[in-house]
Amino acid sequence: MANPFAKSRWFHRLANYSGPPAFFRVLPLPRGFTLLTVTGRRTGRRRRRPIRAIRDGSTLYGVAILGARSDWLRNLRANPRAQARVGMRTREATLREITDAAEREKAERLYVETVVPYDYFDVPLVDWTWPSPARIRRSHRDWLQRGTLVAFELESPDEQ
Questions:
Q1: What is the pLDDT of residues 43-56, one digit of tens each?
Q2: Residue 23 pairs with which residues in a beta bridge?
Q3: Are 84 and 35 in contact (CB under 8 A)?
Q4: Nearest of 57, 48, 76 to residue 154 by alpha carbon
Q5: Looking at the chain, which terminus has fewer C-beta neighbours within 10 angstroms, N or C?
Q6: Which residues of 27-43 are buried (b: 16+ CB within 10 A; e: fewer)?
Q7: Predicted confidence (pLDDT) per residue in 58-113, tens digit
Q8: Using one digit for the tens of pLDDT, what is the confidence trace for 99-120?
Q9: Cα(74)–Cα(70) distance, rounded to whole angstroms?
Q10: What is the largest CA-CA distance in the chain?
Q11: 12-17 — which CB contacts under 8 Å span 24+ positions?
Q12: Do 116 and 132 form a contact (C-beta atoms < 8 A)?
């Protein structure tokens, strides 16, 4: 059965504050995830959101599952500067829209084909399905189709 709330902003807000994502604030993040800290576009307050983000060198690729309705994406479009915590390290990051077709294809392939252990928890929450590598990849493809793929350029520790 498909999750009837998967396209709801309130469902994603609730998921952000409950369950294991709340632990991301104090524990190391699992591989394939980052804790994104952005500045609110209206309030100016710092907002944290754990997202699935696959790293390729100094670039993180993530998907705003709700597309343009995603709060963290709207905040970053207003101010592209953010912090991304990967593992136990926090780095400054800048949102970048992907315009190059070759990079987009590479990022999509990387995002879909990378299956990390935490996906076995995350996919059932979002899509209400039994996780298997094939089903997880199908969910990743669905998220790419209905969402917005973005890149975060991580600054090196020397630049901070």
A1: 999 988 889 999 99
A2: none
A3: yes
A4: 57
A5: N
A6: eebbebbbbbbbbeeee
A7: 999 999 988 999 999 999 999 999 999 998 899 999 999 999 999 999 999 999 99
A8: 999 999 999 999 999 999 989 9
A9: 6
A10: 48
A11: 12/65, 12/66, 12/70, 13/71, 15/125, 15/126, 16/48, 16/49, 16/50
A12: no
> Rounded to an integer, what is the distance from CA 105 to the centroid of its chain?
18
Query: pTM of the full predicted structure?
Result: 0.84
Question: Per residue in 94-112, is it b (16+ CB within 10 Å) or e — as a string?
Answer: ebeebeeeebeeebbeebb
Calculated CA dihedral for residues 153, 15, 6, 149, nearest 10 degrees? 0
Measured from the Cβ of residue 119, the count of other Cβ atoms closer than 10 Å reads: 21
Can you spell out the DSSP letters for 73-137? HHHHHH--EEEEEETTEEEEEEEEE---HHHHHHHHHHHHH---TTHHHHHHHHH-S---HHHHH
CA distance 29 to 54: 12
Mean per-residue pLDDT over the chain, rounded: 86
What the block records as the tokens of 39 is 């500045």
